[in-house]
């Protein structure tokens, strides 16, 4: 019955009709002391109850209890009667007053304190508040004393279908891959209804598609949208607009509805191969273009987008595969043809290439659609350009003897104009590479001549640059390096490496090597130097020296005693000793000296007078010592001592006793110098002792004494 009333209210607009909606009364029999009766929404027929029933009710004196209902959104001209309160204590004398308290009492609901009628004075909305809890009480009119305990009851707002479904998250957007099969799920939508989902069908929704068929379908209850057609092609249509409706009352007539939109976008798949816009491309390029320059672009169109449209380009055939290359431009999706090697118009004037474009990312699901690639032909025409002269060789190597005559031709460079016009060439030398102007070049034929004398010992290599310039266009020039090697001629005499000073012992043996000499030559022989050594003409007749093996000087000598002819060996019995005294010691005497037996150093060959005499005395130079004096390179002290030791061991005239002899070499100098530079009276040497005057007064006197001794011997 409430559902019928709700449907009737939608069609009735007369505000004068007041409907009391009641439910069957629930009678509760109270104790005898509880006489008030609550009448809630009863029709007036309750007043016509039989007397018997009234007696029963009064005797039990219980409450007549019921819930009250009121329709929402009722907007009549008069307040709506919701129900009536009544108690058996009220005989109609108007001595009882009814009081109402609780939710909305006095603001939404108003009670007639005499009759107990409850009215709704405002328009109610169930979606805002579905029920109200109130308390009723009967009090004495005069004293306001409660005549009975308060009683609580509920007024429920009865729902009507006054809210349409709403899509709170709309409008919607969804994607689905193109070429999807039938029934592929796209998305789902949801609508809400503010009406009571429990009472009636006011909130029962049914979904349908108003626009978007026949491409998509929707499940009426779950609102899942699916594809209704297979193999939808994005390249044909990319976007679809679907209008979706949600209707309450289970979709029946009279129900309220709401709509939303769904935009479905088909995503791309690689279902299309690349295709060149034209099968033949023509390009032209100057022959002097820089390597790496872009000559032209070719493009294969692909109806797909994104990575599905990416194509790689390659040169798969043609007569210019070595000269050209093609690269892919990922942004523009085209192929760029670039020059890889230099072109020559005079050699070849056109090239034909076959290029291919192929998809980078392929989808095996669509492999049956054919190969995802395409080919095109590219013709490239080479244009003539004014090129600089070209030398016959990238470098030149020339050779010339250092004694070559001036203006003699060293060599020749050649160059030509590679253009068809074949302009004459003029040659010149870059003087920055020939600052001394040692060479010239013939401007017409490129012959290089010698301008100044050459010297290989000063400069072996000369590096110059020859310039070739077109006479008709001076801006076209070329350069070539020319390396000139100066060849050697024998124009330098050998030179000794240094000046030599040789020393030898007076008892040197014939054939003994006393000095090795070497020489150098500034010239450059092919197989190394070989020198022929010889003595000077004035020394050729000297029997004491000769050259051996073209390498060393050998001395042959005879010891010469100029001062006396007596033998060195003393045959008498007197004891002859030689003392070495350190003259740099102040004081001392014989006990501070070192003595040794001179007889142990005697040569037995001298006893018989067979010692060879020397005709030339060695030229010895004596210099004052300054600090540490190095030993002359020609003196071998160790050899000298060993020779004397050997002679002493084999001397039959040696004393008949053994003695230990100490041979010490004073290798360390002193400030005062050493007397080792003083020759004894038996050394057979003529000396000048004037330099001792520079060592101080003591040595000056010593020099005078020795000089006197020498003078006496001469006399």
From TrEMBL:
Main location: membrane
Record GO terms (molecular function): beta-catenin binding; cadherin binding; calcium ion binding
Keyword Transmembrane set for record: yes
Domain of life: Eukaryota
GO cellular component terms, A-Z: adherens junction; axon terminus; catenin complex; synaptic cleft
CDD domains: Cadherin_repeat
UniProt keywords, alphabetically: Calcium, Cell adhesion, Cell membrane, Glycoprotein, Membrane, Metal-binding, Repeat, Signal, Transmembrane, Transmembrane helix
Segments crossing the lipid bilayer: none
Record flagged with keyword Nuclease: no
Pfam families hit by this protein: CADH_Y-type_LIR, Cadherin
Compartments where found: Cell membrane
Cadherin domain mapped to chain residues: 87-167, 168-276, 277-391, 392-496, 496-620
Membrane topology listed for this record: Single-pass type I membrane protein
Any single GO BP term: cell migration
Function, as annotated: Cadherins are calcium-dependent cell adhesion proteins.
PANTHER family: CADHERIN-23, CADHERIN-8
The protein's name: Cadherin-8 isoform X1
């Amino acid at each position: 019955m409430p559902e019928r009333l709700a449907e009737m209210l939608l069609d009735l607009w007369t505000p004068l009709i007041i409907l009391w909606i009641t439910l069957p009364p629930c009678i509760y029999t109270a104790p005898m002391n509880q006489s008030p009766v609550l009448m809630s929404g009863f029709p007036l027929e309750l007043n016509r109850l039989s007397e018997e029933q009234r007696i029963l009710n009064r005797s039990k004196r219980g409450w007549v209890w019921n819930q009250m209902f009121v329709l929402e959104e009722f907007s009549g001209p008069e307040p709506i009667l919701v129900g009536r309160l009544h108690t058996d204590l009220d005989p109609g004398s108007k001595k009882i007053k009814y009081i109402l308290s609780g939710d909305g009492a006095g603001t939404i609901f108003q009670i007639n304190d005499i009759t107990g009628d409850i009215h709704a004075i405002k328009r109610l909305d169930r979606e805002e508040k579905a029920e109200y809890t109130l308390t009723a009480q009967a009090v004495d009119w005069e004293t306001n004393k409660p005549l009975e305990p308060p009683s609580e009851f509920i007024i429920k707002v009865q729902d009507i279908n006054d809210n349409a479904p709403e899509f709170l998250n709309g409008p919607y957007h969804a994607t689905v891959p193109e070429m999807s099969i039938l029934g592929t799920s796209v998305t789902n939508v949801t609508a809400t209804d503010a009406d009571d989902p429990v009472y009636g069908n006011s909130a029962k929704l049914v979904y349908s598609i108003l626009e978007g068929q026949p491409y998509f379908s929707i499940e009426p209850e779950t609102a899942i949208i699916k594809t209704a057609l297979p193999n939808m092609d994005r390249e044909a249509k990319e976007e679809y607009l679907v209008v979706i409706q949600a209707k309450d009352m289970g979709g029946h007539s009279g129900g309220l509805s709401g709509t939303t939109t769904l935009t479905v976008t088909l995503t791309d798949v690689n279902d299309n191969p690349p295709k060149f816009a034209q099968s033949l491309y023509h390009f032209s390029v100057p022959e002097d273009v820089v390597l790496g320059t872009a000559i032209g672009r070719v493009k294969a169109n692909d109806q797909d987008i994104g990575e599905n449209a990416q194509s790689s380009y390659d040169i798969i055939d043609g007569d210019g595969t070595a000269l050209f290359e093609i690269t892919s431009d990922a942004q523009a999706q085209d192929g760029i043809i670039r020059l890889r090697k230099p072109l020559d118009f005079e050699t070849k004037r056109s090239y034909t290439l076959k290029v291919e474009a192929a998809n980078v990312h392929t989808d095996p699901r669509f492999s049956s659609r054919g190969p995802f690639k395409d080919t095109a032909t590219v013709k490239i025409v080479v244009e003539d350009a004014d090129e600089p002269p070209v030398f016959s060789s990238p470098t030149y190597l020339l050779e010339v003897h250092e004694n070559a005559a001036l203006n003699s031709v060293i060599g020749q460079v050649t160059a030509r104009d590679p253009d068809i016009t074949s302009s004459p060439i003029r040659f010149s030398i870059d003087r920055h590479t020939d600052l001394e102007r040692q060479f010239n070049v013939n401007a017409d034929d490129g012959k290089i001549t010698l301008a100044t004398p050459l010297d290989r010992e000063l400069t072996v290599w000369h590096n110059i640059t020859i310039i070739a310039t077109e006479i008709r266009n001076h801006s076209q020039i070329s350069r070539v390096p020319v390396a000139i090697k100066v060849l050697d001629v024998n124009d330098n005499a050998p030179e000794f490496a240094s000046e030599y000073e040789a020393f030898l012992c007076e008892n040197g043996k014939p054939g003994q090597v006393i000095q090795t000499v070497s020489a150098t030559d500034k010239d450059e022989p092919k197989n190394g130097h070989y020198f022929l050594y010889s003595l000077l003409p004035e020394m050729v007749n000297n029997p004491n020296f000769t050259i051996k093996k073209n390498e060393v000087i050998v001395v042959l000598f005879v010891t010469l005693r100029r001062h006396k002819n007596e033998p060195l060996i003393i045959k008498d019995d007197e004891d002859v000793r030689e003392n070495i005294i350190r003259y740099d010691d102040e004081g001392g005497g014989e006990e501070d000296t070192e003595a040794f037996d001179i007889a142990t150093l005697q040569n037995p060959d001298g006893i018989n007078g067979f010692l060879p005499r020397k005709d030339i005395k060695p030229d010895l130079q004596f210099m004052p010592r300054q600090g540490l004096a190095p030993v002359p390179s020609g003196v071998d002290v160790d050899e000298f001592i060993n020779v004397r030791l050997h002679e002493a061991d084999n001397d039959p005239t040696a004393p008949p006793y053994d003695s230990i002899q100490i041979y010490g070499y004073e290798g360390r100098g002193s400030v005062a110098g050493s007397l080792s530079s003083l020759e004894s009276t038996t050394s057979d040497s003529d000396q000048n002792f004037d330099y001792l005057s520079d060592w101080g007064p003591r040595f000056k006197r010593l020099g005078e004494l020795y000089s006197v001794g020498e003078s006496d011997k001469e006399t």
